[in-house]
Automatic annotation (TrEMBL):
Keywords: Flavoprotein, FMN, NADP, Oxidoreductase, tRNA processing. PROSITE patterns: UPF0034. CDD domains: DUS_like_FMN (cd02801). It holds the Pfam family Dus. It comes from the Bacteria. Its cofactor is FMN. Residues 55-356 form the DUS-like FMN-binding domain. The keyword Oxidoreductase applies. This is NifR3-like protein. It comes from Bifidobacterium panos.
Length: 418
């Protein structure tokens, strides 16, 4: 179903005009809570990931303070920085450069690039290589956000096979001499009438990607319903390079179930670790065959909150107000399920300094146990199916025309800003 909007975006849903509900990952969960076999390390070029778990890039979330906290729980995973817009990096945008920072403690500096113009993405990759910014580059072909897809980017881009292959080829060509592995993150497709994941996976492999991560939803499904893990299994069977599965992993048992049901080489964690950075420790234990899990008290969670606030202050060059404002969304996730009351939550949202955060923490009962009813459950708002915004005529052909490229590659200042 399609309709043309006033600004010439095309809106698409699947054939039913709704998202298709995939397999519920919790409907077939294992009765045991340890891996049936130890998970093998994944090799990405010169990089070894002993515990094959990846922190997926999330805008506004996976800056280095949050990555450091996650990595302290699972030090042998892979922790990817939030998406960097290629044009912004080439333009030396201050916020883009801030997001490219890594903490000295990070074992592997992993950075994700987004762009539509192959020449600009190549230039950004060249900056990463020449300035020794990262050890690993991931390419974003999975973002479903309208402001990205309406420009042909993110999860809309694999539909254009020539553009998809060219971006990967150019980046691999730049990164390969520096021994920097390149990976790609993709979705199932635009909707279930326009699926691209198998072809995109093969193209990524052919053009030199070291691994592919599949978020098992379409763009139209956004983050709603349940991801369809059978698609991860299909992609794993089709490729020789490692495949990481992504979607609906809220606890270590979900990670075990995904691996068992799909045969994937590892898992990528997005929303599941929001407010729960210890999930990486749980998955590490589970993959090693241990039933050990973290079950923090409110006091232990508050210590994580305070450390997060302090690291964010460092990230913002000592600006406590900026740090505490950034922390607000995390506070909601950290406190999810704890019986702290609406007034307390509101008080945290009004904090303006580290002392304000400490004051609120001191008012809480540190002995309160982590609520069983929210263990391994989704947090935050569930975002259901959305209409997909694409450039006009995007689905008319699998390759780009000269006119389309001229339109897509125009000098858009929004592409260089944050």
């Amino acid at each position: 179903m399609s309709s043309v909007s006033d600004d010439h975006d095309i809106e698409y849903l699947d054939a039913r005009g709704d998202c298709r509900v995939g397999v519920d990952p919790r409907s077939q969960k294992r009765s045991s809570h340890v891996a049936s076999r130890p998970m093998r390390p994944v090799k990405l070029g010169p990089i070894s990931v002993p515990t094959p778990v990846v922190l997926s890039p999330m805008a506004g979330v996976t800056n280095w303070p949050f990555r450091v906290i996650c990595e302290e729980y699972g030090p042998d995973g892979l922790y990817v920085a939030e998406m960097i817009t290629a044009r912004a990096l080439v333009a030396r945008n201050p916020k883009a450069l801030r997001l490219c920072r890594f903490a000295p403690s990070e074992n592997v500096r992993s950075l994700q690039l987004y762009g539509v113009n192959p020449a600009i993405v190549e230039q950004a990759a060249r900056i990463v290589v020449d300035e020794h910014m990262a050890d690993h580059v991931d390419l974003n072909f999975g973002c479903p956000v309208p402001k990205v897809t309406r420009r042909g980017g993110g999860s809309a881009l694999p539909w254009k096979t020539d553009l998809f292959a060219e971006i990967i080829s150019r980046v691999v060509r730049v990164c390969e001499p520096a021994d920097i592995p390149v990976t790609a993150k993709i979705r199932v497709g635009i909707d279930h009438e326009h699926e691209t994941f198998l072809e995109a996976g093969r193209l990524a492999q052919d053009e030199g990607c070291a691994a592919v991560t599949l978020h098992a939803r379409t763009t139209a499904e956004y983050y709603g319903g349940h991801s369809d893990w059978t698609r991860i299994a299909q992609l794993k069977q089709a490729l020789d390079i490692p495949v990481f599965g992504n979607g609906d992993i809220w606890g270590a048992d979900d990670a075990l179930a995904m691996v068992e049901q799909t045969g994937c080489d590892g898992v990528a964690i997005g929303r599941g670790c929001q407010g729960r950075p210890w999930l990486f420790a749980d998955i590490k234990h589970a993959f090693a065959g241990s039933a050990e899990r973290c079950n923090p008290t409110l006091g232990e969670v508050c210590r994580v909150i305070m450390r997060h606030a302090e690291l964010l202050t460092e990230f913002y060059d000592g600006d406590e107000r900026m740090a505490v404002h950034d922390l607000r969304k995390h506070i909601a996730w950290y406190l999810k399920g704890f019986p702290v009351g609406g007034a307390t939550r509101k008080s945290f949202m009004e904090c303006e300094s580290l002392d304000d955060v400490r004051c609120q923490i001191d008012r809480l009962d540190p002995s309160v146990r982590f609520p069983e009813r929210v263990v391994d459950k989704p947090r935050g708002r569930v975002r259901f199916a959305k209409k997909v915004h694409l450039p006009y005529g995007w689905l008319d052909s699998r390759t780009t025309t000269h006119q389309e490229r001229e339109t897509l590659f125009g000098d858009d200042p929004m592409d260089a800003s944050y």
